[in-house]
Write a structure and sequence with these properties.
Helix content is 24%, strand content 29%. By secondary structure, the protein is of the alpha/beta class. Strands 1, 2, 5, 6, 7, 8 and 21 form a 7-stranded mixed β-sheet that branches. The longest helix is centred in the last third of the chain and has 20 residues. It is elongated, with a radius of gyration of 23 Å. The structure holds flavin-adenine dinucleotide.
Length: 354
């Protein structure tokens, strides 16, 4: 794992769900640039991961939108502030530094020294479900890939014998993408020959099966074979209970993504039933300079709603602005403040799409 020298920044937002994104906007209004870190390879948190096509009816001023379109609008809203996005990596460590501020470290080796931290971690980091086989994790990143970013699939697949493991839409889509990318062979491996995906994807899968460019194997995985430090095959048990061997170059595992609270519980912050306890004036945690907003926090009357998270992010940004400047911060309206218009790059004319 590469270790980068720490970069000093004013604000780190942990979590790029709707509340983390709006936190970036509110910080931007105060002239505070943010670095955003998320375990997922994309922004949007639960809205993007759990219900991208479902309607939301309770965002103020938006009669209805989908999870995906809300995230798109938030991205557009924060575009003027050009946050640094660090995606596909989990924040593992958060420690107060003796000289002040906080050391933030990620699973990918990113190290930031932040003057303020905003934990917008929702119900936890969305991480892929692992395939538990002895010795398999040694191949992670080279021959083993969990829910890879679709953009990276051609690099894994071209000219390779690929096995995709899973029964839901991400597995079907990955198998199709590998076949499209010129894999030497593609096997879609699931415990039974039945897949959950959009009808259009299932039709494409059937066409690929008919053409012989994707083979479906129904079996349970019982073990793996490594030779000369390379993953060379999976050991299987077929539906008749017979052992089988499946050679491969690349293994793509799509067994679902689920949230885990993970290391947040180890950061020494006051917790109340696995939620971060905050005050309701600034949504600050038990540690001065660390704020918690959105689904991850708790206080009397807390409701896990997006609009409540937006309110929390607004007051947390005021709190941090006062902490960083050491002076009271006056309220300004986006409607009338020239300074805010300058920060928005809007000059009162509306903001360019990002
Ligand atoms: C099916 C469904 C429908 C819903 N409908 C509505 C609705 O109609 N209206 C409404 O207001 N709310 C609704 N909600 C709730 C709403 O989605 C949540 O309140 C909202 O997503 C919370 O936003 P958040 O940014 O706090 O957290 P999240 O959306 O959970 O995002 C948190 C992000 O933080 C990341 N993360 C966590 N820990 C780490 C770490 N250590 N390192 C790196 N990244 C980390 C996660 O990967 C995730 O992307 C719904 C929820 C569900 C499941």
């Amino acid at each position: 794992m590469a270790s980068l020298p720490p970069q000093s920044v004013d604000a780190v937002v942990i979590g790029a769900g709707p509340v983390g994104l709006f936190q970036v906007f509110q910080l931007g209004l105060h002239g505070i640039a943010a670095h955003v870190i998320d375990a997922l390879p994309h922004v949007g948190g639960q809205c993007a991961e759990l219900y991208p096509d479902k309607p939301i009816y309770d965002i103020p001023g938006v009669p209805h939108c989908t999870g995906r379109s809300l995230v798109q609008q938030l991205r557009q809203q924060i575009a003027p502030f050009a946050p640094a996005l660090h995606l596909g990596q989990q924040v593992a460590t958060l420690q107060r530094m003796p000289e002040g501020g906080f050391a933030v470290g990620t699973s990918a080796g990113l190290a930031l020294h932040a003057r303020s931290v905003f934990i917008a971690a929702g119900v936890g980091a969305f991480v892929p479900r692992a395939l538990k086989l002895e010795g398999l994790e040694a191949h992670l990143g080279r021959q083993l890939h969990y829910h890879p970013d679709p953009a990276t699939l051609p690099a894994h697949a071209e000219g390779q014998h690929v096995v995709v493991h899973g029964g839901d839409e991400p597995a079907v889509a990955a198998a199709l993408a590998c076949a499209d990318a010129g894999a030497a062979s593609v096997v879609l491996l699931h415990r039974r020959d039945a897949f959950q995906a959009e009808p259009a994807l299932l039709e494409r899968l059937q066409a690929r099966r008919d053409a012989g460019s994707i083979r479906v194997v129904a079996a349970q995985i019982t073990g793996q074979e490594t030779a000369s430090q390379r993953l060379v095959a999976l050991q299987l048990l077929d539906p008749e209970g017979q052992p089988q061997r499946l050679p491969l170059d690349q293994l793509i595992v799509c067994l679902g993504i689920s949230p885990r609270l993970g290391p947040i519980a180890d950061w020494g912050l006051a917790l109340d039933r696995k939620q971060l306890a905050v005050d309701t004036a600034q949504f600050q945690t038990s540690e001065r300079g660390i704020y918690a907003v959105g689904d991850i926090n708790t206080y009397p009357g807390k409701r896990k709603l997006i609009l409540c998270g937006f309110h929390e992010a607004t007051l947390a940004a005021f709190g941090a602005a006062e902490l960083l400047t050491g002076a009271p911060v006056a309220l300004q309206y986006t409607t009338t403040s020239t300074r805010l218009h300058e920060r928005l790059g809007a000059a009162g004319q509306g903001v360019a799409a990002g």
